[in-house]
Amino acid sequence: MTHPLLMEVNGLPVHALVVHAVVVLGPIAALAGIAYAVVPRWRDWLRWPLVVVTTLVVGAVWVAYLSGEDLTEANTYGGPLEALVQKHEDRASMLRLLATGFAVVTWVTAWWHTRKGVVGIVLTALLGIMAALTLVWVVLTGDAGAQIAWYGVKG
Fold first, then answer.
1. Cα separation, 41 vs 9, whole angstroms
2. What is the 3-state secondary structure (H, E, C) of 26-60?
3. Of these four, 30, 50, 74, 124, which has the most CB atoms within 10 Å of its CB?
């Protein structure tokens, strides 16, 4: 029986499909998180869209991570491609942790949205930092995955 995350949609593995949600929604969530942190007058407006998109992103990151693990186990790589896959896996492991942390900080910040003082400042600063780190790792992880997908293609 095939593992559910190795499921195919129209002949494509789930991983190949869900990573597109990460590379599109991840930067949107991260930029919204940075905007929330640096533009106080936007916070009321951004709070719930940020929660929704960040929740979608963390879910997509986890599905991409788990389906990527299953995809790697189902294939054998060698040579230079093996190194590319390892780099992508290493970056995906870090992205999974950062996206989860970003989501948790987003949820807590949204819950305590009206907090002033040290708690509000710390949460807002942490949100901006986690958003920026998530943005960087989405780009790095996506680039490493694209190098695998386009390996050997002359352009």
1. 43
2. HHHHHHHHHHHHHCHHHHHHHHHHHHHHHHHHHHH
3. 30
Give the model confidence (pLDDT) of 132-152 as tens digits. 999 999 999 999 999 988 886
User: Residue 46: inside a domain, yes or no?
Assistant: yes
Q: What residues make up the domain containing 52?
A: 4-149
Q: Calculate the dihedral angle through the C-alpha atoms of 120, 121, 122, 123, rounding to the nearest 10 degrees.
A: 50
Separation between Cα atoms, residue 14 and residue 64, nearest integer Å: 8
76 domain-assigned? yes
Closest CA to 63 of 115, 11, 99, 27: 99
Find the mean pLDDT for residues 74-93. 84
CATH of the domain at 72: 1.20.120
Give the contacts of 87 (CB within 8 A, at least 6 positions apart).
144, 147
Q: Which two tokens stand for residue 8?
A: 């195919």
Give the single-character DSSP code of 10. Answer: T
Q: CA end-to-end span of the chain, whole Å? A: 38
Q: What is the pTM of this model?
A: 0.89
